[in-house]
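1st attempt posting a full record on here, be nice pls
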Amino acid sequence: MLRIIVSACLLGLNTKYDGGNNRDEKIISILNESGIYIIPVCPEQLGGLPTPREPADLTDSGEYILDGNGRVITWSGEDVTKYFIKGAYEVLKVAKLYNVKIAILKARSPSCGVDGAYQYRTRELKPWNGVTAALLKREGIRVINNEKFDLSLIKP
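the predicted structure (as tokens):
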């Protein structure tokens, strides 16, 4: 059975920084109808951050942050990089435990953003992967932006 990691907020779980979610009915419907085993994850929660939590922005790409060359900073200036990195590695543990090869992640997120992470303070979409997306890609897991998802992307 195909197993896929999905950002928990997309499944309607209240894991978003503001305590809400980003429920995506299209993804839920397609995955439920296909019989795919869904594993919800929230890297920020797995890294030890509370919900709700203060919004945070990347100072550079997720790849650079994983390599120690960038930071994740909250709007009030707190460095939460270690929580984002820990959460990314916890998601990777889940992926390895269940032999997951595909992840559907929330677009524009500092953790899950795929090919674009939004900086809310500057109102800019940077061409970066979030920290978790960067790690999963680095480890050979196919990462799909929820806004570009369709079933053909996950069928062998």
